[in-house]
Design a protein that fits this description.
Nucleotidyltransferase, domain 5; elongated
C-alpha cells in the first residue's frame, strides 16, 4: 500500500513538472483584508491561459513585451510560474527585476507564500530563504533585484521577469544589459507593465510598439468586469489620468499621452472609437480600406499626406463624404511617389472624381521633395483626363493659379489642426478607422505648445484627415468632369 502511494506521488509530480496549467490548480496567493481573508485561490481565467500560451510561444533568446491593466493576475501568474520552475527544473535561475527594493522583496515574499501553501508533498526543501532569494534543493533559484543598470548583469537567466517596466527609471540600460543574458543562454525575458501616467513616452513603450511579438490585456479581460463596474471605479477615482492608464480598455488608450497634453478631445475620440469605428467592408490591393462605396450622385473629398521621403513615415489618403463628413475609404502604406500618385488617382476616380487636397510641405517645415513629386504627377495625370479642376491649387485666388497642392506651413498648419480639433469636439466628422483614432489619441502639445505626434507615434492619418476637412470648404463640383475619360494608371 505504501509503495502504491509513493508511485502515485511520483506520477503526480511527473505530470505537474510537465504541465504548469495543472500546477496552477494548487496555487494560493495572498489576499489581505479588507478584500479577503488572507489567502485566495489563484484563478486561471481565460486571459491567464492566453498569457501562458504567449509565454510558451516565446522562442529561445526571445522577449515578450506585455502591456496590461491592473489586477488581472499577471504578476501572480509569473510568481507561480517561477516557483514551478524552481521546484522542477534543476539549475534554473529566475531573476525578477522590480521597480525598487520594496517591490523586489514583495515578489520574493509572494513566491514564499505560494510555496508555503502548496501541499506538503509538492514542497521542495528551501536551502536559501531570505528577503531577496529563494533556492530549492535539487531545483532552481528565484532572485529579485531592484531595477538598476547593474540588476542581474553578472547572471545568466533561464527566464527573466521585468515587472512594471514603464516605471523603471533605468529601464533602457537595464534591458540592454539583460538581453545578452538570455540570448547567450537561450532563455526568455518577459517585460510586463501597466502604462505610467506621468510620462509621454518611454523606452518600454517604444519596445512594446516596435515588437512583432507582444501581448495586450485590457480592463475587461477579467471576468465579471463590466461597463458598470468600470464607471463605478471611475467615479471613485481621485486621479482620473492615473485611473485610465491603470485600467485601459484598449491598447490605444494605454499608450495615449496624458489628457493634459492631448491635442484632441480624448472623451470624444473614445466615444468615436466605441460607436463609429468599424472594420472595413473590403480591402483593395492590400492598400485601400473601404467602409462605404460611392453612390452615383455622391460628392466626395480626398485629403492626402504624401510624405513618403520622411524617415519612417507612411503615405495616407482619406476619402470623406463632402455632405456628411463620414469617412468612406482610406489608402495607407509606404509607397514610392509614382505608386502613391497612381493610387490617389484610383481613389479619385472611384469616388466620383473626388475633389483633392494633396499636402505639400511649405515654409517653416521640413522640406519634403517627394510630396512635391506626388502632387506634380497627380496634376499631370489629371490633365490627361481633363480633371484638373478637381485638384486644389494653393494660389487659386491669384492671377496665376499655378501651384498645385495644399501648402502646409507655419500659417496653415495650426489653423487646419485647430479646425479638425473643433470638428471632432462637435462630432461633425465620422472616423471609421481604428488606427486613425489611435493616432489622434497620440497627438499632443509638446513643451513649446506645438501640436505633434508623441515620440514613437505617427501623424500621417491626422494630417490626411485635416487636409480632407479643409477640402470640404474649397471643393468645387461641376458636371463637366463626370463625362471625362477615365484615366487608368499604367501599372494596373
Amino acid at each position: 500500500m505504501e509503495q502504491i502511494k509513493v508511485n502515485e506521488l511520483e506520477i503526480e509530480k511527473e505530470i505537474l513538472s510537465r504541465d504548469l496549467v495543472a500546477f496552477l490548480d494548487y496555487i494560493r496567493i495572498p489576499d489581505p483584508p479588507p478584500s479577503g481573508n488572507g489567502t485566495a485561490v489563484f484563478q486561471p481565467w481565460p486571459h491567464i491561459i492566453d498569457l501562458h500560451r504567449a509565454v510558451e510561444n516565446v522562442g529561445s533568446g526571445g522577449t515578450l513585451p506585455h502591456l496590461k491593466a491592473r489586477k488581472l493576475g499577471v504578476t501572480s501568474y509569473f510568481e507561480a510560474r517561477f516557483v514551478w520552475m524552481a521546484i522542477f527544473q534543476p539549475g534554473a535561475f529566475l531573476p525578477v527585476i522590480s521597480q525598487g527594493e520594496v517591490e523586489a522583496k514583495k515578489v520574493i515574499a509572494d513566491c514564499r507564500f505560494i510555496w508555503d501553501h502548496l501541499p506538503e508533498r509538492l514542497q521542495s526543501e528551501l536551502i536559501v530563504d531570505n528577503a531577496t532569494t529563494l533556492t530549492f534543493k535539487g531545483g532552481g533559484t528565484i532572485q529579485a533585484f531592484p531595477a538598476t543598470s547593474k540588476a542581474g548583469r553578472s547572471y545568466t537567466g533561464t527566464e527573466i521577469l521585468v515587472d512594471e517596466a514603464d516605471f523603471h527609471s533605468e529601464f533602457e540600460s537595464s534591458y540592454n544589459a539583460l538581453l545578452p543574458l538570455i540570448q547567450d543562454s537561450g532563455g526568455k525575458m518577459f517585460v510586463v507593465s501597466t502604462a505610467n501616467p506621468d510620462v509621454l513616452d518611454s523606452p518600454f513603450r517604444q519596445l512594446y510598439q516596435n515588437a512583432s511579438n507582444k501581448l495586450f490585456l485590457g480592463y475587461f479581460e477579467r471576468p465579471n468586469r463590466t461597463e458598470h463596474t468600470y464607471q463605478q471605479a471611475f467615479d471613485l477615482a481621485s486621479d482620473i489620468a492615473r485611473f485610465e492608464k491603470e485600467n485601459p480598455k484598449t491598447e490605444h488608450e494605454a499608450l495615449a499621452p496624458p489628457r493634459t497634453r492631448a491635442f484632441f478631445d480624448v472623451d470624444m475620440l473614445q466615444e468615436m472609437g466605441e460607436y463609429d469605428v468599424s472594420e472595413p467592408r473590403e480591402m483593395l490591393r492590400g492598400l485601400v480600406s473601404v467602409w462605404q462605396h460611392p453612390i452615383s450622385e455622391g460628392r466626395y473629398v480626398l485629403g492626402a499626406d504624401t510624405a513618403w521621403g520622411r524617415t519612417g513615415s507612411y503615405n495616407c489618403a482619406i476619402i470623406l463624404d463632402w455632405n456628411t463628413g463620414v469617412q468612406m475609404a482610406e489608402l495607407h502604406g509606404r509607397l514610392h511617389p509614382d505608386e502613391m500618385a497612381q493610387e490617389i488617382i484610383y481613389l479619385h476616380q472611384m469616388y466620383n472624381h473626388a475633389y483633392m487636397g494633396l499636402e505639400r510641405a511649405g515654409e517653416g517645415l521640413e522640406r519634403d521633395g517627394d510630396s512635391v513629386v506626388v502632387v506634380d504627377k497627380v496634376e499631370l495625370m489629371l490633365q490627361e483626363c481633363s480633371c484638373r479642376n478637381r485638384l486644389y491649387y494653393h494660389d487659386r485666388n491669384s492671377s496665376t493659379p499655378d501651384t498645385p497642392g495644399w501648402q502646409t506651413d507655419g500659417k496653415t498648419r495650426p489653423v487646419m489642426l485647430a479646425e479638425l480639433a473643433e470638428t471632432i469636439r462637435k462630432r461633425n466628422i465620422v472616423i471609421r478607422c481604428r488606427e486613425g483614432i489611435g493616432e489622434m489619441l497620440s497627438f499632443i502639445r509638446n513643451e513649446n505648445g506645438r501640436a505633434q505626434a508623441a515620440k514613437g507615434a505617427y501623424d500621417d492619418r491626422v494630417m490626411a484627415y485635416a487636409v480632407a476637412w479643409q477640402m470640404r470648404k474649397y471643393a468645387r463640383f461641376t458636371t463637366s468632369s463626370s463625362s471625362s475619360k477615365v484615366f487608368v494608371p499604367t501599372s494596373f
